[in-house]
Design brief:
Helix content is about 45%, strand content about 20%. Helix 14 packs antiparallel against helix 15, helix 16 crosses helix 17 and helix 18 packs across helix 19. The protein has five domains: about 160 residues, no CATH class; about 30 residues, no CATH class; about 250 residues, P-loop containing nucleotide triphosphate hydrolases (Rossmann fold, 3-Layer(aba) Sandwich); about 70 residues, no CATH class; about 140 residues, 3-Layer(aba) Sandwich (Rossmann fold), CATH 3.40.50.300. Bound molecules: adenosine-5'-triphosphate. The site of adenosine-5'-triphosphate (ATP) has 24 residues, from helix 4 and helix 6. One of its GO terms (biological process) is recombinational repair. This is DNA 3'-5' helicase. It comes from Hymenobacter psychrophilus.
Length: about 700
């Protein structure tokens, strides 16, 4: 790149910054004018209140609201302009239509339209033309618009990093997409929550983000492949593409816990979108059960599995996480409808209602959920009797009819029906419903499913796009519930290797059985960890398809200690070493909550935070937590204490170890007392320095 080019680009940047400053000034002026008008209007109303009738007041109120709304829009615009001024664009494409001269397109996080020049100075990364930045190198290219494909040639593709209004570097990319820039981005340390990746979105990721066709999109991607990032960018894309019909409030994110929800909460605002409503699975469950039942949470279920190896408990979970369970529930629903109804003759005064009449009325409502039909049939039978008798019915006659309809079906409540299901399949031992005890987590969604099928639930009909993260931890019955509650488009993502409960893990294939129309995308490139860390984690749960990005760092270390005291002292030392390293975040990830508390006690420092299932926000710096809660998060450095064979021995333990180790970006250390866990063979492990 020549100095002249650099000079030109610097001048162009200054010019854009100037235009942005002028635009900010214009917004400021208009805001000032608005508030002035608003003040005058309010004063006017105040003074003339007595002479105004109701219609005048309503009109005045509306005009104030309109002004306030316009004022808010101006504030949002100003915020975007100021953000652009820090980093106006990250890419440029020179694109020529056939037979025409090439024109530059600068691409940034938002678009910037200069009203004075009537020109788009910056294109939003989501604009149709910007897709070529991610999809093509130099040469022939095209982009799709709602009215068809536009073809042409890319003559130049340039990348920039502009921070605080200063050009830090720029690169012409004529070979492969952004590898250099991507490397630089990934090598940085993270001190914060998940960030936007607009400048370095990869081609396969872009295809997922911009997919407009899939009604259900399932993304199965290895650890660190950018699933969560992509899903959030996809939401931003959909909000832009369908801005006339979808707003932030029409989207729902189902996340595994509050900490995760907080961890991902920055990305959309960074992309200029509002905060998206989110629900934790358990909140959804409580809502759907009408807060009638106390139930075990997923976290408690997993903790119970970690604490004790109880075959009957495992068997219950395993069965209720199978696709077969869902099929049997469906069969049972058909069965009760066909076999549990007894239609008997009904006498009301001198009128006889034959069973066939009742049955025919009942069957006519086959689209209505079973338990909702009885009232409707009762109404019809009342009409029938009234008609036959040629008079009004007494209160007592009406209740005779209602009671008789209630006796048509021998089970009263959804819970009774659920209990009966286990008798029907001949496995009553699979349901543990002790008086006063909490409902087991594995039963929660089965009960909800029956409730939806038998009583109908119409909540959440307003949602226009559903995002489900950590899909591996939800079972077919949970997906069946989601499918019935949310008829909208869905993006579902996760990694079956990162389950925290191997007895209830769902793979993309399982989910496809519930959503046969799903488009399944698989991502194998891993961006988070160094090659050394990825190679290490592959020893726990191998995946021959994983492709780590070529980025190197120190090999993971395993430190053997002589006794608990020494191990805790080692953790203390490693934490001190972290404080003086260049890294910004350290995750000390344990298997159980108890171990996390123990490590926390031992460290006792003001800059160390303990994250528990009660925590509601992500903290920066040094965090002690469990693998379950660390799922989905990442840290510059990860420390896994107690990596002995005593701690990590079962299948569930292995999942935890894999999740814990895959959280590390640059550095990973494990400590243990006694024999090292069998999930890590000793070979290739570097001894600690
Ligand atoms: N195209 C990209 N450019 C820059 N960084 C990227 C890109 N794709 C992913 N990353 C980074 O890789 C890391 C992992 O991303 P993310 O957490 O979205 O992955 P994930 O697949 O959801 O991970 P996991 O399943 O292991 O929790 C993040 O730091 C993210 O910023």
């Amino acid at each position: 790149m020549t100095n002249a080019t650099l000079q030109e680009e610097k001048e162009y940047l200054e010019e854009i910054k100037l235009q942005l400053t002028l635009a900010v000034r214009r917004v400021d002026n208009s805001v000032k004018q608005f508030s002035e008008e608003l003040r005058e209007k309010k004063e006017y109303i105040h003074e003339h209140q007595s002479g105004m009738d109701e219609a005048d007041m309503v009109a005045a109120g509306q005009s104030i609201n309109r002004m306030a709304f316009t004022g808010e829009a101006a504030v949002t615009r100003k915020r975007k302009l100021l953000k652009l001024a820090q980093s106006p664009y990250f890419g440029r494409l020179d694109f020529a239509l056939p037979g025409k001269a090439a024109a530059p397109f600068y691409i940034g996080i938002y678009s910037f339209y200069d009203e004075q020049r009537r020109a788009n100075l910056i294109y939003d990364w989501r604009a149709p033309v910007s897709s070529m930045f991610y999809d093509f190198e130099l040469g022939e290219a095209f982009y799709a618009t709602p009215s068809g494909k536009v073809r042409g040639t890319i003559g130049l593709k340039r990348q920039y990093r502009i921070r605080d209004g200063r050009l830090e570097f720029m690169l012409d990319s004529d070979i492969n997409i952004h590898d250099d820039v991507l490397q630089r981005e990934l090598a940085k340390s993270s001190d914060d929550k998940l960030k936007n990746i607009v400048a370095t979105i990869q081609r396969d990721q872009n295809a997922v983000i911009r997919n407009e066709d899939a009604s259900v999109m399932v993304i199965q991607g290895v650890a660190g492949s950018g699933k969560t990032s992509i899903a959030l960018h996809r939401i931003a894309f959909l909000l832009y593409r369908y801005r006339e019909t979808i707003s932030a409030n029409d989207i729902l994110i189902i996340s595994p816990n509050k900490v995760f929800a907080d961890y991902i909460s920055n990305v959309l605002p960074e992309l200029g979108e509002e905060h998206i409503p989110e629900l934790v699975m358990e909140e959804l469950a409580a809502d759907l059960l009408g807060n009638q039942f106390q139930f075990q949470t997923f976290f408690e279920q997993v903790s119970a599995l970690l604490d004790r190896h109880e075959p009957a408990f495992i068997e219950r979970i395993r069965f209720k996480s199978s696709f077969d369970f869902l099929s049997q529930l469906n069969q049972y629903l058909l069965h009760i409808e066909n076999s549990y109804l007894t239609f008997k003759e009904l006498r009301v005064g001198s009128i006889v209602v034959p069973p066939a009449v009742i049955e025919q009325k009942f069957r006519a409502y086959h689209r209505v959920p079973l338990l909702k039909r009885f009232d409707l049939v009762a109404q019809d039978v009342r009409d029938y009797v009234r008609h036959a008798a040629g008079r009004k019915l007494s209160g007592r006659e009406k209740s005779t009819i209602s009671e008789a309809m209630g006796r048509l079906f021998r089970l009263r409540s959804v819970l009774d029906i659920y209990r009966d299901f286990y008798r029907w399949i001949g496995r009553p031992e699979l349901l543990r419903l002790e008086q006063g005890a909490k409902l087991e987590y594995a039963d929660v969604f089965a009960l909800i499913y029956l409730r939806i099928r038998l009583e109908g639930v119409s909540a959440y009909a307003h949602v226009k796009h559903l995002l489900v993260d950590e899909m591996q931890d939800y079972t077919p019955v949970q997906y069946a519930v989601l499918s019935r509650l949310f008829s909208c488009r869905k993006t579902i993502l996760g990694d079956v290797s990162q389950t925290v409960n191997p007895y209830s893990a769902s793979s993309a294939e399982t989910i496809e059985r519930v959503f046969p129309q799903a488009d399944v995308v698989r991502l194998y490139r891993s961006y988070r960890s160094t090659v050394e860390i990825t190679a290490f984690t592959q020893r726990i749960t191998p995946n021959p398809h994983i492709i780590p990005l070529e980025r190197h760092g120190p090999p993971p270390a395993i430190v053997r200690c002589n006794g608990l005291e020494e191990e805790l002292e080692t953790v203390r030392q490693l934490t001190s070493a972290f404080r003086s390293s260049g890294n910004h975040s350290l995750g000390i990830i344990c298997k159980t909550q108890r171990q996390a508390e123990q490590a926390f006690e031992a460290l006792q420092a003001p800059d160390v935070y303990l994250l528990t299932d009660e925590s509601s926000s992500f903290k920066e710096g040094i965090i002690i937590t469990t693998a379950h809660l660390a799922k989905g998060l990442e840290f510059d450095e990860v420390l896994v204490p107690f990596a002995s064979t005593r701690t990590y021995k079962t299948e569930v333990d292995k999942s935890m170890l894999y999740v814990a180790c895959t959280r590390a970006m640059h550095q990973l250390t494990l400590t243990h007392t006694g024999e090292l866990t069998g999930f890590l063979s000793q070979q290739n492990v570097a001894e600690p320095a």
